[in-house]
Amino acid sequence: KSRNRADLPRFRYCFYLDFLANQLDVNTQNALAHLREQGEFVRLLGSYPQKSRLVGPVAKSVEQLKHKVMDPKDISLRTLPSDSESVEPLKIGIVGFDTMGQFLARELSKKHHV
Predict the structure, then answer these.
(1) 39 and 13 in contact (C-beta within 8 Å)?
(2) CA distance 46 to 36
(3) Contacts of 46-53 spanning 24+ positions with Cβ under 8 A
(4) Cβ(89)–Cβ(113) under 8 Å?
(5) How far apart are CA 108 and CA 102, in angstroms?
(6) Alpha-carbon span 85 to 64, nearest angstrom
(7) Residue pair 35/43 in contact by the 8 Å Cβ criterion
(8) What was the pLDDT predicted at 67?
(9) DSSP tag of 3
(10) What is the pLDDT of residues 29-76, one digit of tens each?
(11) Considering the entire predicted model, what is its pTM?
(12) Radius of gyration of the chain (CA)
């Protein structure tokens, strides 16, 4: 059976998450399950449990940086090799045009079609 175009959803929810909680926590798992019921796509970008601590080589590197004295003149921004390549502008749509949406549209429209 073919579906009429009017029967298709006009848009689909897509969630990218970055939050302060342990992703293995029961409450977090419950919230993620409910969110997955609402949207077709849920991507967890980062999970940062409160009162957590760094371990292993990352902890050692951070500890070394705490004691390192740096001259501000030695700190510079670096660019990626791809920054100099010409890239065709993307076509980007923004849903939920609140303050954050307006900010994203303003910034993204500098290099892309919004």
Answers:
(1) yes
(2) 17
(3) 46/17, 46/18, 46/19, 47/19, 47/21, 47/22, 47/23, 48/19, 48/20, 48/21, 49/20, 49/21, 49/22, 49/25, 50/20, 50/21, 52/22
(4) yes
(5) 10
(6) 36
(7) no
(8) 83
(9) P
(10) 898 888 888 877 888 888 877 777 777 888 888 888 888 877 777 666
(11) 0.41
(12) 21
Instruction: Tell me the one-letter amino acid at 12.
Output: R
The owner of tokens 């609140």 is 98
SS3 string, 31-81, reads HHHHHHHHCCEEEEEEECCCCCCCCHHHHHHHHHHHHCCCCHHHCCCCCCH
Which amino acid makes up residue 109?
Answer: S
